[in-house]
Amino acid sequence: MLRNVDLWTRDGFFSTPDGSSIYFWGLASREDGKAQLPGPLIVVQQGDTVRINLTNTLPEATSLLFPGQEGVTVDDGTGPRPVQPRFGPGGVLTSFTDYADYPDNPMANPTRVTYAFTPENPGTYLYWSGTNVHRQVLMGLHGCLIVRPADYDESVPARRTAYGEGTGTEFDREYVLVLAEVDPELNYNVEHGFPYRVRDYKPRYWTMNGRCAVDTMLPSGVGYLPTQPYGSMITAEPGEKVLFRYAGGGIENHPLHPHGNHTRIVGLDGRLLRNGATDLSYKRFTVLVGPGQTYDQIFIWTGLGFDPVTHPIPTVLPQLQNLAVGHAGNTLWSGSAYLGLKGDLPVGVADLNDMGEYYFMLHSHEEVQITNWGKYPGGLMTMVAVFPSGRLGERHGRIPYTESVPV
Questions:
Q1: What is the rounded CA–CA span in Å between residue 393 and residue 359?
Q2: Residue ranges making up the domain that contains 211
Q3: What is the pLDDT of residues 55-87, one digit of tens each?
Q4: Is residue 402 assigned to a domain?
Q5: Is the Cβ–Cβ distance between 343 and 335 less than 8 Å?
Q6: Cis, peptide link before residue 38, omega less than 30° from 0
Q7: What pTM value is reported for the model?
Q8: Given this model, what pLDDT does residue 2 score?
């Protein structure tokens, strides 16, 4: 089957919770669409022929690399050929792969190229610019590629897997977290055409799916974040298998850790952790996501089943007057220590808890990465929300089977 994906390079601005608006370069999935951070999520199937059409509108040549994919070809209108590095005068490397030129180049090179490949292995992958990588990737030209196994079937639980039936990678819900960082000085200098020394790169913001906390916890597709369409809030019910897909889209290491339970790593860089019949998956408290790395993990939350009548918590719970509740007048606490129940809260405190669910933080263990320019909370932080059984709809934790998500 042939899968076509159309992408346009664009510039735009993204928002941070402290009120900043930062210039960036990104990718749009429609000719009249906005750039988005990260680039559109691309979902294809193992064995499909994938064609990605890249049209460049930025003031310099751009390209796309697809790490983990073999046999990638490019077509600039003269016919397909294997991708290869590009060199300028004196044999100086100008791009790691064939590129789409910028519109005003007097050499009149094509501004649209088509990359094609057939993914042989399921898993989670990144894609990013292969031209002026030290600038373009950091400016936002990167995204995530999911390759479904050949036997994937959303409606059959045994085939709703990350790596195929019988691999132990079944899941009930799945979430993608693309991690990156931003030095506003780089973005400002690119916007205004000023020089910038990459050795001076110093991030001030850290993004999860293009957003800084607390915006990470907002739903996907909110209208006031038009260039940051993907949320990062994870929802599940007790006992469900939740697939976390981590992808390191920047140049820093990000030690991520969810509260509530360890994760079991089942895949690394798009490869199943299995040697024949031997299961090589393993559990981790914290996963260090390096630049360009991807991790596929299964998270399961199973509580102790406390309820106030038949299985009460075996300790004396503090009274309301002995609790410090909320920050800035709101709280995610339900007022009850029991899953699915709600209790009393102090007068004037807004309850953001819908139905007595539990909230566990998922965040970076490097403290500066959970700030927005030094102010806590921010950066690489979101929540895992565990809802009472039977209360979440099927739309939660479902990634559509589509080539790209329009903005």
A1: 18
A2: 2-299
A3: 999 999 999 999 999 999 999 989 999 999 999
A4: no
A5: yes
A6: yes
A7: 0.93
A8: 66
